[in-house]
């Protein structure tokens, strides 16, 4: 069984849709990952609900 889920989010810098692989075994994560399109650093906030479905918030590292 894999706890990795692929989630699509919209980059707040270039507005492209990007796919992220989220590790659902660690709820409430926050980490930085570069956008695969524009290479801007993005802060990702991952929450996993009781059903194991991840929801990902994304914001630019620099406001
Ligand atoms: Zn981007």
Quick structural overview:
Helices cover 0% and strands 56% of the residues. With 63 residues, it is mainly β.
Please render the helix and strand layout as text.
Layout: E1 4-10, E2 17-23, E3 29-34, E4 41-48, E5 54-60
Antiparallel strand pairs: 1-2, 3-4, 4-5
This protein binds zinc ion.
Zinc ion is lined by residues 11, 13-14, 16, 35, 37-38, 40.
Count of discrete domains: 1
Identify low-pLDDT runs.
Answer: none
What order do the strands of the largest sheet run in, or round the barrel if closed? Answer: 3-4-5
Radius of gyration: 12 Å
Count of extended strands:
5
Report what the structure shows:
This protein has 63 residues and is an all-beta fold. The chain contains no helices and five strands. Strand 3 (29-34) and strand 4 (41-48) form a beta hairpin. Zinc ion is lined by residues 11, 13-14, 16, 35, 37-38, 40.
Which properties best describe this structure?
63 residues; mainly beta; two-stranded antiparallel sheet; 5 strands; elongated; binds zinc ion
């Amino acid at each position: 069984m894999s706890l990795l889920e692929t989630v699509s989010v919209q980059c707040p810098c270039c507005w492209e849709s990007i796919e992220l692989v989220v590790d659902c075994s660690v709820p409430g994560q926050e980490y930085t990952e570069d956008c695969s399109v524009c290479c801007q650093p993005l802060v990702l906030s991952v929450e996993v609900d009781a059903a194991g479905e991840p929801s990902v918030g994304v914001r630019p590292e620099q406001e």
